[in-house]
């Protein structure tokens, strides 16, 4: 038995049970440890041919007032009225740049937290369509308890209205491939990334129950992007192309982020650090907002070999190694269509809030959009 395997086997039984319940795989961790010290670029960067998106890979929404826009809207509304849509929000983060609190519980508008505004969206959709749009929150060990407490009576374990499920966890490693111990001598647990969503959602049972009652589409969005709301026109466009996945993209406007590319001829989304050395990401004018419309059936059946990228973290004043998977790499497992959406004005769909200064800047736009879309009454 290797040193790392012995270290893991010697962990207290309650800790091992807690880890295994959240997707922990000792054999996978051992494989990660064996790769530390090897060329990180060789691990993280995509092999094969990487090219800019081809003409037609990035599509535009039909213009308002056109027959196609009206058709998309009606198709989306019909799907909502049939109860075929669920909203899945990524809510595992701590607001480390906003005081180290649970981000879902940060006050965005007076008396309204991120969680409150997502609940208000859910309430508005129910009023508008006559049926509930389930709100599923992918939490982490750090956020699950406080979020469930804040939900109170609104919590519905079956997922018909509002529920939570936890993303996976693993253990940090040292640069030498041993277990990383914190300042108290305890193993350092971390969440393995938004790419956990398909597996964690299936394991929760929520997705299976949704499919059993006729669910068709899972709308996935970041908690802190309050522009990424359920929109009937975008839903209708997604359903119209017939594929299993739509990814929202916006103009870069000087920002950086993973964007649409062709990898070995296939349209995918890839982060900049995944690109081959020498590939200029500036040739791609848009990037992914981490908003996806996915076929519930395709999510349930998805079987892919996820790449866990190696990430170096500072824990205190020490270096730790952890391995994470990225949600946009779902495009490597499901054929994807890319839809350019607005990032300005009342139609804006990209309003991320990463720190207090950004919240102050975006607060007027967030309030205006929430009112325009019927979430504040």
Automatic annotation (TrEMBL):
The keyword Zinc-finger appears for this protein: no
The keyword NAD is assigned to this record: no
Domain of life: Bacteria
GO biological process: UDP-alpha-D-glucose metabolic process
Keyword tags: Nucleotidyltransferase, Transferase
Family matches, as InterPro entries: Nucleotide-diphossugar_trans, UDPGP_fam, UDPGP_trans
Protein's name according to its UniProt entry: UTP--glucose-1-phosphate uridylyltransferase
Organism of origin: Sorangium cellulosum So0157-2
